Queue: 3 jobs
Job 1
Amino acid sequence: MLAYSYIFTHEGYPCIFWQDYFNYGLAMPGTPNGIEALIRLHEQYAGGKTDILYCDNDLYIMQRTGADKQIGLVFVLNNSERWNGWEVITQWPNKEFIALAWNGRSNLPPENKWTDGNGASDFWAPPRGYSVYVPRQ
């Protein structure tokens, strides 16, 4: 799921393996945790260029800037064994962000976030997981 979260939030044309979606149960329809949620996010929000906001050995945070009707998103990929996050500066000042998709080694959803007047906030993802936040319209 970490790989799928990456390819569905970044630029390009993602591809899904039939067996992953249908045979291995990764579609997870009706939940924020599977491929189906990532497809929806890709189609509705993942427009514009990719800006990497933070990157180290265990944590990667980027934003898609938005284009046309796709308003953009913030993506967090966590490779550590604990919840992990970092404060970054997004392009959206004074905006609430909601997590619409996540998966990892925790059943808890990520908390909604507010950016300050400079667009700064801390964004988190579950252990060995990801979170996709979108600005509330």
Job 2
Amino acid sequence: MYRQLTDDALMQLLRNSDAKAFEEIYHRYWERLALQVLKITRSREDARDIVQEVFVSIWKRRTEIELKGPLIAYLLKSVRNVAIRYIEKNITRNNYLQTLSDSTCRDTADPGLYSEYRELQHKLDRAVASLPPKMQEVYLLSRNESMSYKEIADHLGIAENTVRKQLSNALKSLRSSVSELTISLLVCLATILQVTGL
């Protein structure tokens, strides 16, 4: 029965907390949304998590969602926004920017974007190199070696709280140093979405 319903009818049922309507919307669109996010993050796991996060949010806000257009447009915009926030949050993660630029921006129609992205990667590398020695060491052990706070503390012979504080300060410094990365990243993503017709 639910498969035959229009999106508008499903949304009306969803506003009345109809779980079956929610399931139908999920099954109807999750694959398309995951593919959309995959084009941005290049990670199947991240794509799945982001789509799930969006649907959890939709269920929580089910009584207050007011659509001003097609449901699919709302869903695509939602996953795009969450994906961009995810990238902003992970902008200083080891090799994240490089992986994104190599596999994504290179595929766009504008080779200038790829070149700009490589320059931004170099800026990030220089920002890491300019960190105070101990802070840089903590950051690199965390990002390059994927060590936990405890492992870094044991390795360097310092307290876990010191590791946590050094890493937090390193990330603040890097985000401040490469703030333009996010702007260029959004430009790149906008180009990708335009090129792929999403």
Job 3
Amino acid sequence: MSYRPFSRRFIALALAASIALLSTSCGTILYPERRGQPPGGPLDPGVVILDALGLLFFVIPGVAAFIIDFSNGTIYLPPPGYGAVPCQTLRRQDLVPVKLAKQDMTRENIEKVVSEHVGRPVSLDDGRYRAGKLDNLEEFDERVESAVQENAESRPAAIRFP
């Protein structure tokens, strides 16, 4: 019985699987939620080490892993406060009243004013938030709870006041 053809096939299959796995990039696989985060900041040592291992064993997939992780932003540690704020932490007593004239109620102006108050960039891209109308401020806590229950992993709810 000849083991040589079996071992060559096994080695070829293992090599192909390794190249396919390493070429998809470690940070993108391990931290898909980091995709699209702002570039810069401290590098994640775990992702760098895993990408470097790919570079050590297979040069082309290792380089591809670094390129993919840098371009996706998954090689960087997230900055403090990055990501969605869970709705469960938002309560009525946390609200800060801000007055804007009706003609100033544009997406850009609202993003600017909210960014100034929270101290970090805010983006009101379509599909990334939910908005609703309240008749009075007393409904706020109830509406936030219902928004959380509708979808456990929902984005933060934005509620517009008349």
